[in-house]
Write a structure and sequence with these properties.
Number of helices: 23
Strand content: 15-25%
Length: about 575
């Protein structure tokens, strides 16, 4: 690991280097439409990336003029409150402050922006909001535990990264270095008062969410919001439409009916009196977006809906200066896992592994998931990645996931604490689809549910106000019913999805052939090339259950190629 940032400055964020007794250095560059700045104020070097809101209110608290530049507000806040400044900041952002012999790095609790760091031999710290800025030229050194985590989960959750010698701050975490002392801590937010009744809580959530929307639409000339037809996005559009009837509702549509939410979204937009646009992209466009993501992404990410997200944000760029998104509601409200997962975690996990595996082979296929797992945490993993044994065969080494954030979060709860555990796991699963699409497109999104007083209020509510049988997101349902007839939105929801097998089969499997080329994998020596070939052959012969595994390897190959070939980096 070099002691200074990469010679080429990051195309998509800030980077810096700090050493005791030396002048700190920071630099930045970014795509349009994103808040990103490096500034020096009163001997303090400040850098941030993302969205900071309500700075005029913070300036007033500091007896500064409302139009005081953001860096000056942050500098004054640091001088007055030191690390207690952090919970006073609103938005989705990462922040670096260098003040003499002191350095503070901070990632807000939403986790929708990334902050990476490495410690060079001279006892200083290099850091960046875009991981490739910290990679030396040439093929990156891969962290084996990071590789294992990616293959299992199909993404990486901080503090893990794919790059050897580089760590990431967890959401809400700060790294503080003063002289020779280094510590990390999580910002502490004041717990909001819980209203006395459910109806009063609905009123309070509406007021807090309305204020968050107002802040994020402040000064916008051409606002828009993504509308999927689900509760979160419908509620954002309903509240935002009261302030901005010129808001444009945007829906990503798919040609295949099971994935297409455009008709439901159109009915909601019509009722709200909003102009509605459906964004549709063919498979060739998705394949091209896949390659662009590889060049811009911090790390490999095998969420198959990420290319569609990138295409949607690219369609927004230059047209809309404030785009709202409903991300953050699921994490704030929490969720109860499905009944079969609850049975597996609380009861089936108590059986000896050998007996459980024998029973899994004897019961009907529909019941096998109750028993067919090595560790009960696997029943809650988001995507169908590689199993531990498969990863050991591919990588030729022992593998453990006990140290991952996901497994650590799972272990904090007793077997029967299903709602609490699964809600914590939602926080442990990163929302990198949006983060990476924002980086690659240069189009920022604004998240009224995340990094706001509304989010903290939702998290503070009693669990049965947030969820009860048959009523997930109970309080948001009650609020939305005030603004939209239930018949428009109270329907089955499958989430933002994508027909992955169709993309992998397009152009006679061209994407798979390019990125699962065994010769390239043999040259790398990273994982077993023969195993890669078997997966590609299996998918070609109709084994559709391999789609996620093949996709994960294609994403990893594209990311490695972009890092190795300078012509493919930004």
């Amino acid at each position: 690991m070099s002691a200074t940032p990469a010679a080429t400055p990051p195309a998509l964020g800030f980077a810096g280097c700090w050493r005791p007794g030396a002048e700190p250095a920071m630099s930045c560059a970014a795509g349009g439409g994103q808040q990103l700045q490096v500034d020096r104020r009163d001997g303090l070097l400040v850098a941030w990336h993302g969205e900071l809101h309500a700075l005029p209110a913070l300036a007033a608290e500091l007896a500064l003029a409302a139009d005081t530049p953001p860096a000056a507000v942050l500098a004054a806040g640091w001088r007055r409150w030191h690390t207690a400044l952090l919970p006073r900041l609103q938005g989705c952002f990462v922040l670096a402050l260098a003040d003499g012999d002191e350095l503070l790095l901070y990632r807000d609790p939403s986790g929708l922006r990334n902050l990476f760091h490495a410690a060079p031999a001279e006892a200083g710290i290099t850091f960046a909001s875009w991981l490739p800025a910290l990679l030396p030229p040439g093929a990156p050194a891969i962290a084996r535990t990071g590789l294992h985590e990616y293959l299992r989960f199909l993404d990486l959750a901080a503090p893990a990264t794919i790059a050897a010698g580089i760590g990431a701050l967890e959401p809400g975490q700060a790294l503080h270095r003063r002289g020779g002392e280094l510590k990390t801590f999580f910002a502490e937010f004041e717990r909001p008062a819980v209203p006395a009744s459910f109806e009063a809580a609905v009123d309070a959530v509406e007021a807090a969410l309305d204020q968050a929307i107002a802040l994020r639409l402040d000064g916008a000339q051409s606002p828009a919001a993504f509308l999927s037809g689900g509760i979160d996005s419908a509620l954002l559009c309903a509240l935002a439409a009261r302030r901005r009837p010129d808001l444009v509702a945007l829906t990503v549509g798919f040609d295949r009916a099971p994935f297409d939410e455009a008709p439901a979204a159109a009915r909601i937009a019509t009722h709200l009196g909003l102009r509605h646009e459906v964004l549709r992209f063919d498979l060739r466009a998705h394949a091209a977006a896949f390659e662009r993501l590889a060049a811009a992404a911090d790390q490999p990410l095998a969420d198959p809906s990420t290319p569609a997200t990138l295409l949607a944000l690219e369609a927004c760029r230059g047209r809309f200066d404030a785009v709202l998104d409903g991300t953050g509601a699921d994490e704030a409200l929490g969720l109860m896992p499905s009944r079969h997962v609850r049975i597996a975690v609380e009861w089936a996990s108590r059986l000896p592994p050998g007996l459980r595996q024998r029973l899994a082979g004897a019961v009907p296929a529909g019941l096998a998931p109750l028993l067919n797992f090595e560790h009960p945490a696997e029943t809650m993993i988001r995507w169908r990645g590689f199993g531990r044994g498969e990863i050991e065969a591919l990588c030729g080494e022992p593998v453990s996931f006990a140290g991952t954030r996901f497994f650590r979060s799972f272990a904090r709860f007793r077997p029967g604490q299903h709602f609490e555990r699964y809600s914590a796991l939602l926080d442990a699963m990163p929302s990198e689809r949006l983060t990476q699409a924002m980086l690659a497109s240069g189009q920022a999104l604004r998240f009224p549910f995340a990094g706001t007083a509304a989010e903290r209020l939702l998290r503070a509510l009693p669990p049965d106000w947030r969820w009860r049988p048959g009523e997930p997101k109970r309080i948001l349902r009650a609020l939305l019913a005030r603004h939209l007839p239930r018949a428009l939105w109270d329907t089955p929801k499958h989430g933002f999805d994508f027909p992955l097998p169709a993309l992998l089969a397009d152009e006679d499997g061209g994407l798979v052939r390019r990125h699962l080329d065994p010769g390239r994998w043999q040259h790398r020596g990273l994982i077993d090339a023969a195993g890669v070939q078997r997966l590609a052959d299996g998918l070609a012969h109709g084994e559709r259950g391999l789609a996620f595994r093949v996709w994960a390897l294609a994403v990893l190959d594209a990311w490695l190629q972009a890092r190795t070939d300078p012509s493919k980096t930004r």
